[in-house]
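Supplementary Methods, section 5.1.

A reviewer requested that the exact input to the structure prediction be made available. We therefore reproduce it here, unchanged from the version used in the analyses.
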Amino acid sequence: MPMPPEVRATCLAAAIGLGLLAVPAAAVESAPTPKPAPATKATPAVPDLLKSLPDSDKIDYAFGAFQRGFYLTAFEIAVERAKLGDAKAQSLIGYLYANGLGLPRKPDEAIIWYQLAARNGDPQALVELANLAALGIGMPVDKKKAANYLEEALGKGVVEANYWLGLLCIDPSSGILDYARAAALFKAAADEGNVDAVYALAALTREGQGVPKNEAEAARLMGQAAKAGHIAAQVEYAIMMFNGTGVVRDQKIAAAWFKVAAEAGNPVAQSRLARLYAAGEGVPRDLTIARHWYSYAKAAGLTDDWLEQALAPKAPKPDAPKAEEKPPNLPGVDAGN
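The structure derived from this sequence is encoded token-by-token as follows.
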């Protein structure tokens, strides 16, 4: 789940992931050492340095150090701000402890800092607490508690909590299974530009879970997510396009979408694209290209009995596969990301 907006805007690469802009995580505090200052000018301590900076009432400097991979510097500056009750600084400290960035990984410490930040006015800390509760990090797994944190965050204007709460509403283990609520939450998140939510809403609409079943609307939403770069949506949209589910059937366009997702490394797309080349559906029949793509899918652990037979060296052309296996009746899949 996302971290405070100042960091998330440039650093967040996935739900719990982090993409640093300049310095890799392994390079904590490892930037080139500056030339030593003259003996008469000792390097100021962080608190003194902070006082000398303009706008010292802000936490921007800690986030700036964080973004460059200087986690210890970020921590030291954030601690000084946290002592003054800065909720964003307290959230940042929690994030450093939760992920072991420049510090020993201590989820229990992270929880304390997030709780303090939430009490001091940072609702994003509630999303981080929900993440820890849902995953059982630093505390027992408690998805109802996670949902409560997210409800509170929503009440305080954290719009991305819509998506995370929606996921809990379709999780059978959460104890709050509610597809209609999930659909409404995903719709709210999708309206705010959350592509994952668009994909989730498309899946519910296709299956008629929480909303009336509408294959045309599902295809529209799936296409929207696919065009926004959502890899799983690209695979699902290709399958819908190939089978003519909610859209006019077009094998060539379906093959093009499979290729986009295959080139992004999705093994399901690689396997499906290999099938198309092996069968000559939507693309010219080419067993060499089919073997190429299937090799990637197999390396990722995804095997296909029909492809094994079709691509076997010197094997005669196999009989047509069963209807449930052969394109043009590709099944829907949970393609993953």
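Residues 1-141 form a domain with the Serine Threonine Protein Phosphatase 5, Tetratricopeptide repeat fold (CATH 1.25.40). These observations are discussed further in the main text.
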